[in-house]
Amino acid sequence: MKKEVEILVEVFDNKKQAIKKLDSLNFLGNKKTLDIYFFDPKREDLKPDKTGQLKKCLRIRNKDGEFSLAYKVDHFNKKNIWLYSDEYETPISDFLKTKEIFQKLGFKELIRIENTKSTFVNDKYEIVLENVKKLGLFMEVERHNVDEKENIVKVKKEIWNWIKNLNIKVSLELTMGKPELMLRKNKI
Q1: Global confidence as pTM
Q2: pLDDT digits (tens, 9 = 90+) for 70-129
Q3: Which domain holds residue 56?
Q4: What total number of domains does the chain contain?
Q5: What is the CATH number of the domain that holds 134?
């Protein structure tokens, strides 16, 4: 299990401007990504709540021909604001067969997220600029190697200060992920 501590923001600069401001980082490349999220009609925990918030999610991913399966459990503060996720992810060899297995088990497709990810890294962070189809331009900044004992609120403040120093025009932290944003946009 990996503790995923990150901040997601909407980017108001155009993609070219944002990339220029990230040019001091190591560029790892662009990848087209398709994420399919599933829910089980017989269970409540993989479905969005009344506000469209997912507490847990099951996803298969096709990232330029590299396939993976992930299960995420989100953790929230007392005000129900997302703090971090426990992420269980493993490679899979056959994207379509995995999708078929889920369907045979009764799982239903909840939402699809298609995007192009431009990934940058430095010694402390992974920065992903995401052009999400039908949603917009976003930036996700995740800190590497978060220790189990670290204070998550402090880590997130550190990430936020680092984002501000990039001088990219962005929103405040979005307190939900792209699946929830897409669900709300589509009124699902």
Answers
A1: 0.90
A2: 999 999 889 888 888 999 999 999 999 999 999 999 999 999 999 999 999 999 999 999
A3: 2-185
A4: 1
A5: 2.40.320.10
